[in-house]
Specification:
The structure is a single chain. By secondary structure, the chain is an alpha+beta fold. Among the domains are: about 140 residues, Arc Repressor Mutant, subunit A (Orthogonal Bundle); about 120 residues, no CATH class. About 40% of the residues lie in helices and about 15% in strands. The protein contains 13 helices and 15 strands. The strands form five sheets. It has a six-stranded antiparallel sheet. It has a three-stranded antiparallel sheet with strand order 3-5-4. Strand 10 and strand 11 form a beta hairpin. The longest helix has 21 residues. It starts with a strand and ends with a helix.
């Protein structure tokens, strides 16, 4: 059966696949034009789409899933593993067996399939059209946004009051496995002929996610010191450190303002670091007594959200736009800038323990919003 939209005609299974994805993570909203289906029809075969739709929103072994479908466990195991290697399913290996789970569109299918080189230039106009037109808004319009910025260095925070959940080195050292892979955003930028000159091998995965990436051939294991070197290089080159919003922080990004999708999503949804505490736990302050006010390249030029501005020739900080990354602080020649931790009642402590717990938290929020909208 074909479903007709303004943009395209798609098989009914892809309509149900979109509906399924709209219940995962931040969702995958429908559009009037149908541009959201380009991505789905090129990544999933109809059989893969049916399996994805049928899989519950939690980890299952192939044997458990096969029992619920009445299918041969070994045949299904081969299919699920094939989907995991493509980036269509998330996989963990435990003592009890290999387990699979359906991922949301972001963070999940988009990143995994980009890592697997399954996204080509022809898919991007519709995907980013959907992103700008609605999907991107959802990434931060939730109580568990996909990522948050953390200080690029701990010693730039007044009195070294960096929370453990925001200390990049502590985050890295708590994990047994670390891996580096290509930055998805810069990779997509290259497909679109972006002039970005930043290094592409900067995306850090940790824990089970690191193993998933390495096992699929998307990344390589690295040491903590090698990971810290990537962060240091990012500071020198002007890249923001962002982590996924879970206690385990399984992804750490080194984000350039020219390519980063999450920074673009933050802009789309309206930063408002004051009214939305989950944007950052820190804010930048300026000591006017030692600021010379002429260092536009090291302040305004490095700020990824344009929080640093020159107003009538005088530098100003817009607290609503400041994401507490610290890029301006590390290059301030007079030491006039620093980060301060926000008051305790404004601190965002990720409620989710793991990446997949954050998916569930985001899904609950989206479902509650839909229910509220239906009653309005």
């Amino acid at each position: 059966m074909l479903m007709e939209g303004l943009h395209t005609m798609v098989s009914e299974v892809y309509v149900r696949l979109r509906e399924k994805l709209d219940t995962l993570g931040v969702g995958y909203p429908a559009t009037e034009t149908g541009i959201e289906y380009t991505f789905l029809t090129k990544l999933f075969t109809p059989e893969e789409a049916e399996l994805f739709i049928a899989m519950p929103d939690e980890f299952h072994t192939a044997k458990e899933f096969a029992a619920s479908l009445g299918k041969d466990p070994q045949v299904l195991a081969d299919k699920l593993e094939g989907m995991a290697q493509k980036g269509l399913l998330y996989r963990v290996r435990e003592e009890s067996g290999v387990k699979y789970r359906v991922p949301p569109i972001i963070v999940g299918l988009f990143e995994f399939n980009a890592a697997a080189n399954r996204i080509d230039q022809s898919m991007l106009p519709d995907f980013f059209g959907h992103f700008v037109g609605g999907l991107g808004q959802r990434l931060f319009d939730t109580d568990t946004p996909i990522v948050r910025a953390i200080p690029v260095k701990t010693d730039i925070v007044v009195d070294n009051k960096v929370l453990p959940i925001d200390d990049a080195e502590l985050i890295l050292r708590k994990h047994k496995h670390l891996a580096v892979s290509e930055c998805v955003c810069r990779k997509m930028g290259k497909l679109l002929s972006s002039p970005c000159t930043h290094s592409i091998n900067t995306c850090l995965a940790m824990g089970d996610t690191a193993k998933y990436y390495v096992e699929n051939g998307w990344g390589k294991y690295i040491t903590v010191d090698e990971a810290l070197a990537i962060i240091k290089d990012g500071d020198e080159k002007g890249r923001v450190v962002e982590v996924v919003n879970s206690q385990d922080a399984e992804f750490m990004c080194s984000c350039c303002s020219c390519c980063c999708a999450s920074l673009k999503a933050l802009e789309i949804s309206g930063v408002d670091a004051v009214g939305r505490p989950h944007v950052t736990n820190y804010s930048c302050v300026r000591d006017e007594t030692i600021c010379v006010g002429t260092c536009s390249d090291t302040c305004t030029g490095r700020c990824p959200t344009h929080a640093q501005k020159l107003v009538d020739g005088s530098p100003q900080i817009d607290p609503k736009l400041c994401i507490g990354c610290g890029l301006c602080v590390t290059t301030c020649p007079t030491g006039a800038l620093s980060l301060v931790k926000k008051p305790d009642d404004a601190i965002y402590n990720p409620p989710a323990a793991t990446l997949y717990d954050s998916w569930d938290a985001q899904a609950r929020y989206v479902a509650a919003q839909k229910q509220a909208d239906s009653k309005a």
